[in-house]
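ok so I'm stuck.
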Amino acid sequence: MTKQQTKEFEDNLHIINLQLYKRRDQWKLTSLAWMDYDDVSQIIRIHIYNKWPQYDPSKPLAPWVNKIISHQIKNLVRNNFSNYAKPCLKCSASQSENGCEIYQTQCDRCPIYAAWCLRKRDAYNIKVPVSLEFHAHETGESAPSNENLPELVDALHLKMEKELTDVQWQVYKALYIKGQDELELAKEMGYKTSEKNRSPGYKQIKNIQKAILIKAKRCIYSGTMDI
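replied:
not stuck anymore, here's the structure
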């Protein structure tokens, strides 16, 4: 960045700081005790500085800054929480108070939950530090005890690849194997929405998830998976 661009950034810093302050309520990830909104603001401020050469001075600054702020908050939530959070948060079978429509409770009897326990649970516990008592008792979670869990998870993935349609498999692989964000996936698939206050692809993704869960439940209880 040139000296002139750096000076322009510094001259407009009060506007950037004001927009950051106005959007404090967008940061709802208070469970991360080591990252508060002051930290988030500084991260975004540095990002805006790096992006400054892309700003067109002939256009209003606030809308450009606000777009960056919103995108960066979503990225920080995804990178520090969503990528590690329980798959139940994205599952249409999930019920309040750690309930599950299929298994009654969110537990490692579900192969998708079991895969999360094996691969991401430790990272989640580090990112969102709470007491061991909370994890063991208040949430009703238990560490995977089945020695065949990795084989069970892999078997489910193979079975689902055969049972699902191409579109369903694309959603399954993105959400339950790669841990991709629903909104990001919906955009990739070209889904849109005409409903107010609804993210693009909300209905389409949810309907596909329901179809996936029906087939997954059928596979699990039919005893047709080879492990």
